[in-house]
Amino acid sequence: TCSSKTTSYKTKKFGSTTVNAGKAYYISVRAVRNYNYKNYYSSHITNFSVVTKPSDIKNLYTSKVKSTSLRLNWSQVSSASGYRIYYKSSKNGSWKVYKTISNSKLKKSKGNYYISFNNLNKNRTYYVRVRAYKSNGVIQQYGAISNTKIVRTKK
Fold this sequence. Notes:
Blueprint: E1 4-6, E2 11-14, E3 17-20, E4 24-29, E5 32-35, E6 38-41, E7 46-51, E8 61-63, E9 70-75, E10 82-88, E11 96-102, E12 107-109, E13 112-117, E14 125-135, E15 140-142, E16 149-152
Antiparallel strand pairs: 1-2, 2-3, 4-7, 5-6, 8-9, 9-13, 10-11, 10-14, 12-13, 14-15, 14-16
């Protein structure tokens, strides 16, 4: 018998073990049967890997807002493999993925990651947000989506 209880996005309990955010874990499972107060274990063991969700995005802000471009900045999530950036150009519009990018391809300034949006329309309002992901090469586990930043390009 195994139980799992979510305590927050940062930690998770698996039995009595605390599991950290944004980490890959390798788990082995096998069947057990209790008969006459004695445990009997199967010889077959199944191994698999799981990835926990990374921590939340912090310190999200926009900068270098111009007529056709802007920069979205955020603090690095140490447990993340990369980030997915979303945008929309109207309040009731659908969110679109702007880019999914690994840490190694992101630019950094003053300790924060950033991504530039280019070829935007002048004097237009944009809504932007980001979320971190953790990957083990097979599975991508996404963290919570950040708060939305609303920014208007210049005339």
